[in-house]
Amino acid sequence: MELLKHCIREKGTVVSSGVLKVDAFLNHQLDVSLLNEMGKAFYAHFGHKGITKILTIEASGIAIAVIAAQYFNVPVVFAKKAQSLNLAGDLLTSQVYSFTKQRSYDVMVSKRFLTAEDNVLILDDFLAEGSACRGLMEICHKAGATLGGVGIAVEKGFQQGGQLLRQEGVDLLSLAVIEAMSPEQGIAFGVTQQF
Ligand code: 5GP
Asked: Whole-structure pTM over 0.70, yes or no?
């Protein structure tokens, strides 16, 4: 998606060869026009699939999911990263390893909000090694829900998450794919679908 690539080039910061900072438009300050265009792009790709729920992970996925959900007209469920007193009853849980934070954490969704009737679209900001996405997929599986697809804002194509999901037949749409990046040489994008 050209607008997203433009924002990454203009406002993103390559912190290291592995980590891109996008807090000027996606992770801290939010560019709502950009999020809206991203929502349209996800709907253009997944809109025909009978999605009943959008699943994401707190915190950065929520804004992307909420704006996209207005096009799909379905609820958003976000997986929580820590047990909260407000979460009563049975939980669907999974463990996620964050390579940016170098630690594992549990994510959880109440069984009330994801069931075997659901056809789920997973949305998130980044796809790197795929651990966050797999955690959400495991939660869908535990709920007996169908996975309709996975939509990602920024895929780092030099990490293996996206390639493995595609090999497994997951309908994965990444709006920008970074093939290589470094603080010295900047960012090289791969070819993606036109939006
Ligand atoms: P994965 O689980 O696929 O290895 O990593 C995806 C998760 O880690 C995303 O939910 C995102 O929050 C975080 N992440 C991975 N790589 C980056 C990055 O380069 N920049 C930022 N801001 N977050 C990242």
From this structure: yes
